[in-house]
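Exercise 7b. Backbone tokens:
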């Protein structure tokens, strides 16, 4: 330090850096604001939907730990790919699609496949015979029907969100849910009689 006490601290940046930073700042600010907004949307979905996504993933993976792993991996991928998230895109459905993909990847990697028991376990523990019958019926549904029901009734998704998550059209969601409800009713009657 020099002996002059009135000396100001030196700016160690190169002279051109200051002008460049001032020129870039408004652009970086817009990028950072958009990125912050995307992260905020992902955080909201994480906080609001984590348990619902675990239930849906559990119906695929068969156990809660694998389901949690799938959901955690899905959110990590979503954060890394947040640039791909469109401003008007439904974040819930976008993340749900990633969750479904991660859960399927886990089952392929571990040689697991869906069973009626995993659908039953994805729901709360049975408290009466009727609920247990419904759970068994859910376990016998084709995968698309089962996932559509889980996303609609356990994750609270709208038809458009289910369509985006499953990669199908909204009309197909309606038909899939209708067929699923009819199959559950038929299977419920078969199990009950």
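Sequence design result:
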């Amino acid at each position: 330090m020099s002996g002059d006490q009135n000396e100001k601290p030196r700016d160690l940046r190169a002279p051109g850096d200051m002008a460049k930073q001032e020129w870039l700042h408004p652009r970086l600010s817009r990028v950072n604001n958009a990125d912050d907004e995307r992260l905020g949307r992902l955080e909201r979905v994480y906080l609001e939907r984590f348990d619902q996504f675990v239930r849906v993933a559990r119906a695929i993976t068969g156990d809660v730990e694998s389901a949690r792993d799938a959901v955690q991996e899905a959110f990590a991928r979503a954060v890394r790919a947040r640039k791909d998230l469109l401003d008007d895109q439904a974040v819930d459905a976008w993340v749900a699609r990633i969750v479904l993909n991660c859960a399927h990847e886990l089952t392929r990697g571990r040689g697991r496949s869906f069973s009626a028991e995993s659908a039953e376990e994805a729901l709360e523990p049975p408290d009466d015979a009727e609920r247990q019958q419904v759970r068994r019926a859910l376990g016998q549904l084709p995968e698309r029907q089962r996932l559509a029901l889980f996303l609609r009734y356990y994750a609270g998704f709208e038809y458009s969100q289910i369509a985006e998550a499953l990669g199908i059209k909204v009309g197909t969601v309606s038909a899939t849910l209708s067929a699923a409800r009819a199959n559950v009713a038929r299977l419920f009657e078969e199990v009950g009689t």
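Instructor comment: The chain has one domain: 18-192. The CA atoms of residues 5 and 11 lie 17 Å apart.
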